[in-house]
Amino acid sequence: MKKLTGLLMLVLVICFVAFEFQAAESDKMQRVMAFGDSLTYGKGDKHGEGYVGGLKDELNNPETEQKVSFWNYGIKGQETDGVIKQLDDYRIHTKLDKADTFIVYIGTNDFINSNGGDLKEINDRKINEGKQEYIRHLKQITSTLLKGNDQADILVVGLYNPISDNSKIEKHIQDYNQSIKKVVKNDKRMRFIPTDDLFKKKKKAEYFSDKIHPNEKGYKLITNRILASYDFK
Fold it and tell me: In this structure, are residues 180 and 139 in contact, taking their beta carbons and an 8 Å threshold?
């Protein structure tokens, strides 16, 4: 009986030590929660990684002790109203306080769909009307994240012009980005990360997989821009 009692005590001690070790390791782990559309999902990258996968690889360098896990909630074709619905989902909403950093990269589909679903003929009035709705949604998204987590930073990634030689589109993209910056300035925990300059004066076939989505090389530019703009401590 004494031997059995001693064995049980030993097992309990081992379990306790293991639990404490796992808890300590968990405390060291940074958690990044990313919301967005196909650009966050990684469409166009043949490896399916996109910029989120790029960040994961760079930040979990085996030569450092840094450990970062990513929850990627990017959905192909998603608009800002889709992100709002995601944040209402208890399976996501109840995890907001677990994140150390949020990434919000959304708006390309809002922009294109406000123009009728493509960028062949630019309708200034429709795009401007769509932008007003987009900004309302973006404010709601960032407000929910700020309330759901009182510590985490929010990285809001700006839009780029997929047809860089089209001045009409460029004007609207710049207007969108200026409006995004105004939202970001509302709280010190939010940071705007520009991308529109990344693809200017570059051969599209070299950095894009199609008319809209970057390829591996294109996503690498976005990954590097985020790393250069924010220190994942």
Answer: no
Average pLDDT along the chain: 90
48: Cβ–Cβ under 8 A, 6 or more apart, which residues? 42
Give the pLDDT confidence of 164-214 residue by residue, as tens digits: 899 999 999 999 999 999 999 999 999 999 999 999 999 999 999 999 999
Tokens 């973006």 sit on residue:
138
Output the six-digit token pair for 207: 């950095």
CB 105 within 8 A of CB 93: no
pTM, to two decimals:
0.88
| Adjacency order of strands within the sheet including 30-36 | 68-74, 30-36, 101-105, 153-157, 190-193
| Closest to 163 (Cα-Cα) out of 124, 134, 202, 127 | 202
Beta-carbon contacts of residue 222 (< 8 Å; ≥ 6 apart): 39, 51, 54, 157, 195, 198, 214
Is the torsion defined by CA of 62, 26, 219, 229 positive or negative? negative
Alpha-carbon span 34 to 52, nearest angstrom? 8
pLDDT, one tens digit per residue, over 111-150 is 999 999 999 999 999 999 999 999 999 999 999 999 999 9
